[in-house]
Specification:
Herpes Virus-1; 76 residues; 11% strand; three-stranded antiparallel beta sheet
Length: 76
Amino acid sequence: MLEMRPDCERCGTDLPAEAPGAFICSFECTFCAECSEDLDDRCPNCGGELTDRPTRAKALHAKIPPSDERRFKGAA
């Protein structure tokens, strides 16, 4: 089951599980549409292809909650 990470790892944009616009690689590294495009649809962590992440119906969030662990680290 997908974690449905809540933010873009590169810019920190919120990516709600029920909304389109998130892109993931096979390791679930997660990026917004703008960052994915800037990265030429390649994950900077593993080099894998970034593809559309499916959405999860909001009605299922109580039973199968999306992750709340944010991955954006900000400027180092």
